[in-house]
Every structure is written in C-alpha cells, then in structure tokens.
UniProtKB/TrEMBL annotation:
Pfam families cross-referenced by the UniProt entry: Pribosyltran (PF00156)
SUPFAM superfamilies, sorted: PRTase-like
Keyword Glycosyltransferase annotated: yes
Gene3D superfamilies, A to Z: 3.40.50.2020, PRTase-like
Protein name in UniProt: Phosphoribosyltransferase family protein
Statement: the UniProt record of this protein carries the keyword Transferase: yes
InterPro entries noted in UniProt: PRTase-like, PRTase_dom
Domain (Phosphoribosyltransferase): residue spans on this chain: 18-189
GO molecular function per UniProt: glycosyltransferase activity
Record key words, sorted: Glycosyltransferase, Transferase
Length: 220
C-alpha cells in the first residue's frame, strides 16, 4: 500500500482544492485505465478537476449508510452503486436486528439510492470500473465512515486498484483505509476542526449543481 501525505495548505473553494489534488494524482496515470468517482455532493466539484486534469471519465459513487432502528447513526451496513451491499455483522448481531427490520431498512435506503442516481445520472449507466484504477474523491475526510464503506463496496466491483484522494484530513488519515491501495491527501491538519475549516468558501451544493457538473462532456 502506498500513501502520499503532504504538508498542509488552505483552500479557496472546492475547485481550488480539486486543482491542487489533481497535481498529486499523476502517478495514477501509470496504472492503465483510470476512472474518477466522486462522493456526492461535496466531492463532485473536487473530482471534476481531477478527472479533467487526467482526461478520464467522471461519475458519482453513491453510498447510503443503513442505520440501526432508533440508532440511525450506528451503521448496520451500507449499500452502494452497482447493487453492492456491505454488512456490519457485529452491529447486526449486537443490536438484534430482525430479518423483517433489515428488509425494511434495505428497501428504504435502496429507494433513496435509486432516487439520487436518477437525479444525478438520469438514464445513463454507471461507468464500468472493473479492471480499472479507481480514484475515489471527496472534499475531505472527517470520520471516514462513508469513504470506508465506499472503498469496501468498490472492491466488490472488481477494480484493479482503489485510490482514496481527498484535499484534507486529520492525522492518521492514511490508516483509516487499509483496503485502499493508495491514500492521497495534500493537507493533513494537526488540530483538525472539520473539513469546512480548510475552506474559505464551503457553500452547500444542490442536486442541480451536481447534475450540471456531471453533464460535462468529459464526464462520459
């Protein structure tokens, strides 16, 4: 596993962060076919800069946490693009989730995943990642829970390699993703106060913003 951690910097906005991040993903060009996937919403403008720099396809990778009933922040598993299901067996067994409860949770989260996929992609099929080097991008890492679920889910789709690429994260960020082949993080903040603290402009993005960014010709 190869990790690339660089000295810290501050970002004007997500586009600026994406351009800086793009400078650090050059080695991924050596890996044959490359695909860039973004975690929406905030990861999309960052990932678009990376994809344009490498001149490779860009897509979103949708991940939905499946929370425990009455404890929605506790993940019993996750579902992701491509029909991938990741189970947290320890949590499922420890909380006594019944088959009926699990089926209800899965139905609800799958419906939301499909709704978002329809908003972001429309009739377009997801980009094929099998055999490719996949760079999965977000605008930063805090707890890393969503990104870890994304990496685990991606592994089930048969990529040649998975690289996690984010502009900012806390100390030890590379250790959060043992299933990734490479972790690229230009800014590691010793006194980490959250992703938003690394940006001058950290405005929320709408679904329409994401859809517009993915409509760029290089996204397909």
């Amino acid at each position: 596993m190869s990790h690339h951690i660089f000295a810290g910097r501050h970002y004007r906005n997500r586009v600026h962060a994406g351009r800086i991040l793009a400078d650090h993903v050059e080695r991924c060009r050596e890996s044959g076919r490359v695909v860039v996937l973004a975690l929406p919403r905030g990861g999309v403008p960052v990932a678009r800069q990376v994809a344009e720099h490498l001149d490779v396809p860009l897509d979103v990778f949708l991940v939905r946490k499946v929370g425990v009933p009455d404890q929605p922040e506790l993940a019993a598993g996750a579902i992701a693009s491509g029909g991938v299901v990741v189970l947290n067996d320890e949590v499922i067994q420890g909380t006594g989730i019944t088959d009926s409860e699990w089926n209800t949770l899965m139905r609800d989260e799958t419906a939301e995943l499909e709704r978002r996929a329809d908003i972001y992609r429309g009739a377009c099929e997801p980009v094929d990642v099998s055999g490719a080097t996949v760079i999965i991008v977000d605008d930063g890492i805090a707890t890393g829970a969503t990104m870890r679920a994304a990496v685990r889910a991606l592994r089930q789709l048969g990529p040649a390699a998975v690289a996690v690429a984010v502009p900012v994260g806390p100390p030890g960020v590379e250790e959060q993703f043992p299933e990734a082949d490479r972790v690229i993080c230009p800014t590691v903040v010793e006194s980490f106060r959250g992703v938003c603290a690394a940006y001058d402009d950290y405005e929320p993005l709408s679904d329409a913003d994401v859809r517009e960014m993915l409509s760029h010709p290089r996204c397909r």
